[in-house]
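Subject — a protein and its fold
Fields — amino acid sequence, structure tokens
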Amino acid sequence: MMRSLYSGVTGLRTHQTKMDVIGNNIANVNTVGYKGSRVTFQEVLTQTLRGPSAPQGEKGGINPMQVGLGVGLGTIETVHSPGNLQGTNNTSDLALEGDGFFIVSNGTKNFYTRAGAFTLENNARLVAGNTGMVVMGWRANKGKIDTNKSLEAIEINKGEVIEPLATSQITYNGNLDSRTTGKLELKANPWSLTSGANNARLNLALEPTGNFNEFKYVLSATAGKIVKASDHSLVESVKGTISLDANGTVLDITPDSTDTFSVWGGEVPASAIGDITTDPSNINALFSVGANNLAWSDFRFEKAQTAVTAVQVIDSLGTEHEIVMKFINKDNNNWQWEIETPNLQPLSVTNGEIVFTAGGAVQNISYLNADGSTAISPTMRFGVPGDSDVLTVYPDFTKLNQFAQGTDLKRDQNGFKMGSLENYLIDSNGVITGIYSNGLNRALGQLALANFANPAGLLRAPGTLFEESSNSGVAQIGQAGTGGRGSIKPSTLEMSNVDLSQEFTEMIVTQRGFQANSRIITTSDEMLQEIVNLRR
């Protein structure tokens, strides 16, 4: 028999196998996460007809004579190049950008896949939709994920209840406007003066100086004249400052000049109405000109605007209560804070003071009880209606500032009421964040990824799964984005990496190779037929 006949047979067999691989690739062109395979050939055993000989003297060497015995399969390799990504708008659909595999388990053994078409089953576990195998990762414990623990089945239990946590701290931050001050104005302006037949009118302008409740006053004549008493020289105005406490009590009135000034209704010196005098201790005659007085009742005063912020706190049973915090400017760099609690009974610490430095930072904080006594502890305690525990809350004011900008208060508190899991999100690191009905977002777990030193060495398993082999290396398990593992694309699936144009080209080449090998068999058969016919 002819060696070429058997070589042709091996060619048919290998090309048939390659066609099987190509057909499988094309059949799975739309399989999620499918990785195509490729076939390589190699020459099989070679028969040596004559061995080589080395050169001898003037005689050259002789090359060997060998006849090949056909072709065999070299490799059938899985190609792990990435496939295109397709958005799905399904939260549980996941794809990988870069290397790595999702880890799924049948309960006894881990498998690895690029097909991230996951879904939730009735036991709240995240599973591969095509096999039902559970997706593996690390479960969170009260929002904390420990990636050093052993892998567990990921669970997303919609409707899961999170217990309430009582508020224990409120942090206040932001800015208190250092320019906050009261407002002072004269009700009837200008001020009309009379003395017999002499009449005059004075305009009293009041402007804040920048110090707390301190105002610059300017007295100018709109009718009549203001003169210096010593030499009767005309003056344009008389100026000074008036300062008040937080409640509007006049503390001091200080003229800018020590000179005495008089008001005249007509010609000087025949029509004097009287000297301008001030008396901060007499509310009926704060400003006087002769028998004409400006009393405190002639002024309109508004206290400095209170900065108010409200926060909802939670008791041990998860009931919400409101604490209203007021900040009242009492003096330069000095603010009083006090609380209002409509539904709570204050048991300790209801007010205090915050002193700021000249640079606007908190310098000192005092804590007072409702009776004005110094509190033993800075913690506020409230009695709560019903069976809830006493609510203990620490107010943190250390992050407040006092600058010459508008008041802008923010606050943050811990604690939350009972909530149930309504939805979830998965980020690029595989962290699953639960969204609860009480507004809380908390980590539920994190998906684990695996990588291999030689992914091509993995064994295929049904359902686009792979398993370890002796040549793939041990699975290197870790978080997405670390150790060469890819990142996760949520609401996305990785499509097959099969290139149809490449596969159809390979199919044509394979067909031609098959045809050529069949011609070897045909020709070899005809040659044998000729040999058989020799005996006729």
